[in-house]
Amino acid sequence: MIKFYNTKSRKREEFIPIDEGKVGLYTCGPTVYDFAHIGNFRAYIFEDLLRRFLSLSGFEVYHIMNITDIDDKTIRRSIEENRSLQDFTDEYVKSFHEDVETLRLLPAHEYPRATEFIPQMLDMVGQLEEKGFTYITQDGSVFFKISEFDNYGSLAKLDPDQLRSGERVENDEYGKEEGRDFALWKGHKDSESNVSWESPWGNGRPGWHLECSAMSTHYLGNHFDIHCGGVDNIFPHHENEIAQSCAATGEEFVNYWLHNEHLLVESQKMSKSEGNFYTLRQLLEMGYSPESLRYTLISTHYRQKLNFTFDKIKSSQKCVNKLRELKRRALLIDIDAEGKDVEKLSSDMLGKFQEKLGDDLNISGALGELFVWVNDIFSQLDNNEVSVSGAGSILSTLNTVDLVLCVINDTCNDEPSEEIDVLIIARNDARANMDWSKADEIRDKLDALGVVLEDTQGGTIWKRK
Ligand code: AMP
Ligand code: ZN
User: Fold this and answer.
1) In 3-state terms, what secondary structure has residue 19?
2) What are the C-alpha distances in Å from 387 to residues 22, 187, 381, 394, 423?
3) Which band of pLDDT confidence, cut at 50, 70 and 90, is reported for residue 335?
4) CB of 47 closer than 6 A to ligand 1?
5) The overall pTM is greater than 0.85
6) How far is the CA of 316 from the centre of ligand 1 (A)?
7) Do residues 103 and 290 touch, judged by C-beta distance below 8 A?
8) Mutate to test the pocket of ligand 1, among 208, 232, 235 (most ligand atoms within 8 A of CB)
């Protein structure tokens, strides 16, 4: 059973997708007016862990991440630099995708840009207007009328009288949109240069919250499974998304809301506006590896605050090195090696690793299980107790773990071939010794890894099923 902590209920709940075996996942993406900082990447790495875990558990995940390429900040910065909004934001969209690749995040299936979804957003404003949820102000903005929407505040647990956040959520940089009603469509201001689109309510541009409602619904339907973001997104962003979407469609919007805690520096949220941030590029220039940062950000539970220190990155690198060393040692096992098959030990560990992750992504528990196994295997290797098929199962276990952690292999979106080669050597060896049952056992193992063998005159070749 998989359980996630749902911000909506403030409880761990069993995860049951709307369509069996499938998950619709929407994650709030970057605002592209600068390089994403590693605090933002804490959110994206948590979402990557979630996605990889769901895939490992057999779900087919359809993942959408928006790109906010229009808001106060993108407009202001592009004007300051005397560039068109598109030209200015393109640069940071490109660097975002490069960082995603460096940190080995599984790319989303779609990265819709807000500026490409203006018609869908206007449709939604139209629906809300038709149903009486809007009013227009003198400057040509269209506002959402919260008093018309009964459940406003249900996600953030707002005090209904005062409409204040019921818990400590930082929302200073979104202060402009905080308050009772919020803008769906913002009437054009001269200070925003020529950034505007035509609409039935006059020229203007969309409000930030509307972007995510329109784009998530476009790809995932009115009602979908999981929506993620940092805790600063709970209010007002996600609260407003719920109000707009439910009011417009009359349907449920999202079943599970998952929010990550912040990355801190000296007890302050890492943020661009505070200026206390590091980008991935800065850390790489300082000589830290992408996998050490990935491990640092992934290895603290997503709902706990994480204080960023250089000591943490250094100790993460040591953990990564240890896992890689185990792989290297397993690859060195001689094909004649006799000893134990560590398969049961490995499969027990994998079972527990997955079970811990299934408990609201309990990564500390999962890593605890992994490193008990790692230490155990190291001591068996030191005592020459591991057979060649044992080496195969060590490698296959590390590959499975790496489908989630993604810090050991050069590529972790597919299994690398060394393990397969080791198994094929072992099978040839068994066949040479006429140990047919062993040879069959190894063939079955390869079959389970999605590999089919073909014995040709020139030797055994393999391909993926
Ligand atoms: P933004 O580009 O500010 O819209 O943020 C993109 C994502 O990063 C959102 O999900 C934010 O909640 C998240 N985020 C921003 N700062 C931090 C931080 N210091 N720690 C963790 N997540 C963050
Ligand atoms: Zn969003």
Assistant:
1) coil
2) 39, 71, 9, 10, 11
3) low
4) no
5) yes
6) 22
7) yes
8) 232
